[in-house]
Structure formats: structure tokens, C-alpha cells
Amino acid sequence: MGAVRILENQSLRAYNTFGVEAKAQWFAAFNSVDALREILSQKRPLAFILGGGSNLLLTRDVPGLVAKNEITGIQVESETADSVIVSAGGGAVWHPFVQWCVAKGYGGIENLSLIPGTVGAAPIQNIGAYGVEIKDVFEYLEAMELSTGEIRTFRAEDCRFGYRDSVFKQELKGQYCILKVAFRLSKTQHRLHTDYGAIREMLLEMEVPHPDIANMSEVVIRIRTSKLPDPAQLGNAGSFFKNPEVDATHFASLQETFPNIPHFPTSEGRQKIPAGWLIEQCGWKGKRSGDAGCYEKQALVLVNYGQASGEEILELAKAIIASVEMKFGIALTPEVNLI
Ligand code: EPU
User: Fold this and answer.
1) Hey, whose CA ends up nearest to atom 26 of ligand 1?
2) Cα 161 to ligand 1 centre (Å)
3) Disulfide engineering: 216 pairs with which of 32, 110, 149, 232, CB 3.0-4.6 Å?
4) 111: which DSSP letter?
5) In-domain check, residue 37
């Protein structure tokens, strides 16, 4: 005991990829279950568990304790000739974990290369990109119930994964700390997801007709770096909003007015519409208000040019929501967590 340091009045600027200033009343990092228990035993009211801070907009100082998960470590739990179950600590950084798997020849998460954040945060919002979501390769996770200290195993069905959604964003929000996540990955006969338009184009450009998982990772890295700002250069939290879905009737009326509206059918007979397109049509792409802006290459990404406050970014988001609602009758919802 006594190894954990609790800091008071700690700036969170370095701990959120938007790079906005906000202070935590208390702040502590933990790299083991015991350290987490020790922090919790001090009975300070917990504000939230922090991962990579890459899906977070801090709009004010945070009362209570912010606890940063730094539990790392990768483990092969079991394997057969064709597949492997690999787990990683909740605080492990996501992209290096993907790279480790790709280097070992383990397939399944290569399309999720370069997504910012941590392994433990990945299932909370069922991260996804280029035709793959965490739920497709998820095996189980272990999480601590913060109120009791009990450790519980969650299988896929317990997590209730949806589009950028899980039980940890709904009924169990704020109640668990994800300690470890295990994935079932392929060792042979990898199922590559190459059908996404941008992927096909990049494979052609790179002249790779028969890609392997390392090629896929490379392709995704190239696409992401060309379209999405690097948080180290320009503060952002990836897609700020979710792509909205509309029902068939609403879609038919939209298509009458906007014949070029891009859309993707969902399994429930609805249509998903890229929020980036809606926002661009409303004239926001590349617009800037003070240091808060709508990214010039991807309208779904809001950026901090330097000194924007969380409130300013939130004001911009609200103005975008209002104009998309007015023009299309669609209510955009944020993908990022607003604090
Ligand atoms: N588009 C525009 N203007 C823009 C941006 C997009 O018209 O400024 C339209 C285009 O029609 C384009 C379509 O939107 O074809 C889709 O754009 P993109 O491929 O960039 O994907 P997205 O729907 O904007 C989603 C995820 C991303 C993920 C990509 C690739 C959400 C909220 N976002 O973005 O995830 O990387 O697909 O799969 O679902 C994230 O969640 O933070 C994230 C970056």
C-alpha cells in the first residue's frame, strides 16, 4: 500500500486529445488491480476512469477523482492451429497492440489500425472502422465493479454491442473499470475486409492485388493519416458525431430534395447517412470560430487550433446540430463523451 500518488488540482490538458484545459480535483494513475483498489479505498468520489482521453470533451473542471487506467501487458491465452485468443490490459494503448498482433500474424483487428485510445476503452464504444468493429473479434473482458470491487467477466452478449455503443455507455455507464480485454484472432485464412471504397482505391494505388494483414494495416494507416488530423498536431477526438439513421419514409423524402444524398442500408431496413456529408452540405467544412473548427478534410471531425475551450467546441457542435436539424430534419448525436 501507499504506492499510489493522488495529485490535487491536476490539469487534464495532456490527458485529452482535444488538448483543452480543465482541472481534476484529484487525479491518480493505476497500473494494477491492487493500485486501483487502493485508490478506491480512499473513498474520494470518483468522477470517471480515464483511458487515452481520445473520445472525450471536457467542458469544465472536474469535481472528484479522475483515475487513469495504465494496466498494460499482452498475453496469448490459448491457441489452436487456426486461431488465438490474445488479451491486453485495459490501459494498453490500442494502436501498438494492433501492431503487435499484425507482426505476430494474428488477423482481425488490422482495419482498426491507428484508432487513438486504449484497449479498455475500445469495447465501451465498440470502436469500428472500414467494415470491422470490436464486436466481430471480441471474446470476453474482465471489469471491476467500482462500488463493490468485484471483478466480473463479460461475454459478447453481456456487452450488448451496437453501433458505437455497449452496455458500458448505457445502463452500466460509469460503474465498471475495464481491466482486460480478450480477442479471438485468426492465424490462418484471415478474413480481410477490403470492400470499403477507400480501401479498394488505396490497394489499387499501392499496387497490392493480394493483400495480407500487414498490407491492410498499412492501407488503413495511409487512409487515416490522409483524412484525419493527428491529435499531436491538431487537437481532436476523431468523429465528433455518430452517423445518423433514418427510416424509409424519411429517407424517401430526403432523396426527393437531395438526390445525391449518400446512404448505406442497415440490417433493420433503415438508411445510415454520413454525418460528414450532412455537415459539409450545411457549409461547415473548414469553418472556424476562434480556435474551434470543423476540420477542412473531414467535416465529421471538430478540431482545436490551440486555445479553444471545451465550451467553445461544444458551442460549435451545437450550432452544427441546429443547422443539420434545420436543413435535413435530422438530429445528430455526439459520439464523444461530454463532461
Ligand atoms: N463525407 C462528406 N464530407 C466529409 C466527410 C465525409 O461528404 O467531410 C461523406 C462522403 O460521402 C464519404 C462518407 O461521408 O464517402 C463517409 O466518410 P468516411 O469514409 O470518412 O467515414 P465516416 O462515416 O465519416 C466513419 C467512422 C470513422 C471511421 C470511418 C471509416 C463514425 C461516426 N465514424 O466515418 O470512425 O474511421 O467511418 O470506417 O461512424 C471515429 O469513430 O472516431 C472514427 C473516426
Assistant:
1) 129
2) 20
3) 110
4) G
5) yes
Is 303 domain-assigned?
Answer: yes
Pocket test for ligand 1, best of 196, 239, 302, 320 (most atoms within 8 A of CB): 239
The one catalytic residue in 83, 239, 245, 309 is: 239
Residue-range definition of the domain harbouring residue 294: 235-338
- The ranges of the chain with pLDDT < 70 are 1-2
What's the pLDDT score for residue 329?
96
Q: Pick from 69, 97, 117: which residue ends a domain?
A: 69
The ligand 1 atom at the shortest distance from the C-alpha of residue 224 is: 36
Quote the number of domains for the chain: 3
Catalytic residue check, 139: no
Q: Are 88 and 168 part of one and the same domain?
A: yes
273 C-alpha to ligand 1 centroid (Å): 10
* pLDDT value for 2: 57
Pocket test for ligand 1, best of 111, 113, 300 (most atoms within 8 A of CB): 300
pLDDT for the residue numbered 136:
96
| Residue 248 within a domain | yes
Do 149 and 176 sit in the same domain of this protein?
Answer: yes
**Torsion angle, CA of 110/115/117/121, rounded to 10 degrees?**
-60
| DSSP code at position 134 | G
For residue 128, the cross-strand partners are 133
Q: Look at residue 275 in the predicted model and tell me its pLDDT.
A: 98
DSSP characters for 254-272? HHHH-TT---EE-TTS-EE
What local confidence, expressed as pLDDT, does residue 16 receive? 97
Rounded distance between C-alpha atoms, residue 207 and residue 205, angstroms:
5
Looking at 54, 69, 84, which one is the last position of a domain?
69
> CB neighbours of 232 closer than 8 A, spacing ≥ 6?
none
pLDDT, residue 92, reads 98
